Amino acid sequence: MEKKKETMDYKSCFYIPKDEEMDGYNSDGNTRKPLITIDAPHLLETAQMAVDNDSLLSPLAKSPWSSHMNHNTNIGGDGFTNPNDEALVGSLVREEGHIYSLAATRDLLYTGSDSKNIRVWKNQKEFAGFKSNSGLVKSIVIAGEKIITGHQDGRIRVWKVSSRNEQIHRRIATLPTLRNYIKCSMRPSNYIEVRKNRNVLWIKHYDAISCLSVTEDYAFIYSASWDKTFKVWRASNFKCLESVVAHDDAVNSLVVAPEGLVFSGSADGTVKIWRREMQAKGTKHFFQQTLLKQECAVTALVINADGNVLYGGSSDGLVNFWVRGTKYEHMGILRGHKLAVLCLATAGNLILSGSADMGICVWKRTLSNEHVCLTTLTGHTGPVKCLAVEKDPEAMLNDKKWIVYSGSLDKSVKVWRVCENAPPSQHGHQQSRTSSEFPRVSSLRKMGSRRY
């Protein structure tokens, strides 16, 4: 079978899958000559690389990543100090592949790329790694002791840290599971037509996984896909409970909120709310409301920790937001990017937006739901594809300081320190700015794909 080829258009930061790929579970022992890039002159260090003939589950020993930490960082007590170099803690750099996904938990950072490796970092130093032989890593979520990864090949893989060695991660399931797949395939009614003369089981995504999410109690796993659906899986036995045809085009983003609400954003330009109800054999989702309908693709969604403010990024560079009252009401638009918003993250009262324009806007929400851009983090030389945030371990108890990780198509991960109490920069964008001040691409039809 011919292996899948992926082509990259850096201007619109998407890739086009050309064919299907075989699923492989063994560790790949082949190594590739590493090429180190240094992306900031003040971070120049001697990179120590280990490339060994290793056939273990973990690819750590043959990793040519390098860590460049900014030991001269001098952040004032009030947060940011401009220029941006002062907020940059360091970079993790490797010519391994474009960074598509990040997840942070406690003192660990998981990074996924199109090399199919998932790297694990501890204190900005490489700690462990594991690999699946098919499907670039589109999404990573942490669900308790489980690490869940979504892939380009439409599969979801579940990993767990070995009880004997915390640096070893073992795959405990691939969704759909073989047992679920065989049992479901026995009934012809379980097949659905996805294209002319092509039928697939409803429990299987037939296109790339775009994002993953889990419920607060880790009981259910949600997967969204370019196949226009999202699916619900029971975390205890990995059984697929439900498949929802949610949109008319690829589902680019999905977030799970408290009280059984689910939000989906699509290339068809809509943001929808779904309500989950429990039934005897699993779950049933009901359409509740369309929050947004526009020409431009919806590319990213995030909801704050309290579940009362939803943000949606679009391919035109805008971030819409809704505040929950008796229902979610549209309250405004954040204008700070010149190209598509590719990722969003929240931390306390901060909202961070990463874009194809290579910048990261850091916004602060006030008690009156106004937003001001505190600063724009610059330094990446490619589109910012993913963000992850964790509490700054060096912060005092009441300090609202955060560590931000940004993954880019420049093949690097950057580490930033941000603070809610930072004063706005001189060039901080305001929520009330008019759209004419920020040249944007009105539609990804002018750039390429609407899928992210």
Task: Name the average pLDDT.
Answer: 79
Q: Bin the strand percentage.
A: over 45%
How many β-strand runs? 33
> How many H/I helices?
1
**Rg for CA atoms:** 21 Å
From the N-terminal CA to the C-terminal CA, the straight-line distance is: 26 Å
Q: Strand order, biggest sheet?
A: 3-4-33-32-31
- Major β-sheet profile: 5 strands, antiparallel
The structure class reads: mainly beta
Low-confidence stretches: 1-62, 71-85, 432-448
Bulk shape: globular
Helix content: under 10%
What topology emerges from the helices and strands here?
Blueprint: E1 6-9, E2 14-17, E3 66-69, E4 88-93, E5 99-105, E6 108-113, E7 117-122, E8 125-131, E9 137-143, E10 146-151, E11 156-161, E12 169-175, H1 178-185, E13 191-195, E14 198-201, E15 209-214, E16 220-225, E17 229-234, E18 240-245, E19 251-256, E20 261-266, E21 270-279, E22 282-293, E23 298-303, E24 309-314, E25 318-324, E26 328-335, E27 341-347, E28 350-355, E29 360-365, E30 371-377, E31 384-391, E32 401-408, E33 412-419
Antiparallel strand pairs: 1-2, 3-4, 4-33, 5-6, 6-7, 7-8, 9-10, 10-11, 11-12, 13-14, 15-16, 16-17, 17-18, 19-20, 20-21, 21-22, 23-24, 24-25, 25-26, 27-28, 28-29, 29-30, 31-32, 32-33
